[in-house]
# Entry
Amino acid sequence: MKSFCLLLLSAAALAAQPIGFGVKAGLPMNDFLDTARSGHITFDSNTNRYIIGPSVELRLPFGLGIEFDALYRHFGYNSSGADILGNSFDARTSSGAWEFPLVAKYRFKALPLIHPFVEAGVSWDHLSGVSQTLTSIVSNVARTSSTSNPPELHKDTVTGFVIGGGIDFKLLVIHVVPEVRYTRWGSKHFLDLNGLLNSNQNQGEFLVGFKF
# Structure
């Protein structure tokens, strides 16, 4: 009975804490993919310069907090090649990626409405909507095919650790939160056997959150 009462008190205390909901948007500070060229094969990539998604934060006493985000970005890459016989191929791949960081935060006391903070935690990154269209010409005959599982795809979900910091400005009822985050992924989404395409395991982001 005593343990049950303690559980109820803990749940009530947790429910009493303010919860902030909002949106977070920003820019990647480096490319999602590293590409190269070798011989008759070329890879090149394009990273859309935006990250956006919902964010929720549980604000705890003593400057502590727990935040969970669901951030979306889009990227793509192309590969092409040819041989001396005139055979060639051209592959165009696009995908979205959902990043789910879960971080613990600590706010420092500065001014009444300005709070610098640091954060650290874990993150999961999941690919969504992977699509590759391959056009090949062999003996002057063109063929087109598509797949959701290109040969360069290594893992559709990876895990990493996150560290970051920023400043929380409270403007009336809205918190404006600019920050910089670094994520080190434990594995690669994409890995070409020839070493011409690799997903970057080091990720930097500049983000701005708007929360109520």
About this structure: Residues 189 and 206 are 22 Å apart (CA to CA).
